[in-house]
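Request: Have a read of the protein record below and say how the chain folds.
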Amino acid sequence: MLEAEAPKVAMRFVVEGPPVGALWRRAFARAALAPLVVLGPLVALAPTADHRFNIYWHGGLFRDDPLRIVPHTLDSLPSYLRMGNFRPLGRMLEKLLDLIAYVLGDVFGIPANIAFRLVSFVAAALLAVVAMLLAESVVARGRMFRRPPSTLAAVVPFAVAGGLVAAGRASPVVLFAGLYLSSAALVLAVPLLLCRIHPQRPVRLWWIGPVVVAGAALASFNEVAYLALPLATVAVAARGRWVLALTGRKFWLAAPMRVLGLLWLGFLPVFGAVRVVINQYCAVRACYSGSDVSAGPAVFAALPSRALGWLPPLMWGEAAGGGRTSGFVFVLATVALLVLAVLAIRDLGRMSIVDRPAALVLVLVAATAVLLAATMGALNGEIQRLAAHGAWGMGWRDSAVTMPAGAILLVALGHAVRPGRRALIAALVLLFTAVGTVSATANKRFRDDVMATPAARLDDRLAQAIAEFEPTAAGQIRRCALRGEFFTLFADAPFSQYRFDQSFDQAAEQKAGVPFCPHAPTAREGK
């Protein structure tokens, strides 16, 4: 007997969309790539101020012995304290970043100034990733990576990237970029990590020592890092009360609050002792103006300019200076950012929704970060004088925090207006994409203006001379010609002449065992 034919069963495959891990990976990629598009036009920008020398000085000093960074920094600590600042860990990071740029130039044969910018681009990408994760950590109520990223992760990377504008030579995008962008990432990372501690997690005894030391390390980093714990205090308290709905003992004794208290326990004694020592020194002599504190009515006059100076339209004026912008860069940046934006919008349907209470808590946290950094900037005498002359969009070290914090603030406000409206979120993505495009063109205009100066063109040729070091008589003649050009250009700046010989001789000795150009000892006179 023949068997009956088996019935045919219709099968339907349902595509549910990308898994959670893929959504997170794409969010990370967008956060890392968007800043690179905006900063790309600055890749060949010549270093300014101390970095004209530090790359070669630190590179030559530590190329063959990187661990020497630690004793070298500690030995210089008393002199820096007398000048009014205490940044041992920050200076170690600065020297390490300079060394990385120098080694990249040495290994790949590229000028150190380009390698220096590439290092700063990595720091900017790190800052954007940390900013995105901070936003996610504040609004997430459970295990953050067990659920899809929220719609904040679609918008924050573009908002942060759009704020990376070279708003003047003191902007953290230009001057000490790797250091200050990394410092800002540290400031945002502290509340991020604390918000990820489960409220009911036990605080082990062995945590106490490392956490207290970590608090002391924050007080030993630099002035920007001082902002981390005040920001973390607001973030942990606001999230615990209004996102997690903790009250009473559950609020005050939650694990994040206890860890935060240990961090403060390590931070305050170091911070207090250092400020007492600095105040004693600065009471009898002039201190370094970049870190000096100038309290008084001028602080309140300067505060609005620092609290709003991170807005991209204000910074565009400082960067572009009213000059013509590059159409090619505009098109290239538009295409690159638009591709990332389309991919972000495509993922919106699978992303988590942010409710209004969580969005408002994020508004509070971001606004606190902006206000803290703006206050730090307004306390500086130089900034007060610039603010009095209407320099609202000028970047300074506080901008390393106000730029990403302001970006988070705008994104959080957008989410608080109409929670769950994906059309609004898509519009925000496109809006910040357009902002990023304009910021990229402003950066190109800034780079063109700087590179049109004789000093920047000379810096380029000096970088090339080190990258392609020629230890021959002909090479020495060319290097001495460059030195002579520098000394002519900076004839009225003896300290710059001293730094030139100190730095380029160090690099030349490391590369070939010869001076950059044979010369009589250069006198060190003032700064």
Q: What stands out?
A: Residues 469-512 form one domain. The first helix runs from residue 20 to 39. Residues 1-15 have pLDDT under 50 and may be disordered. The radius of gyration is 26 Å.
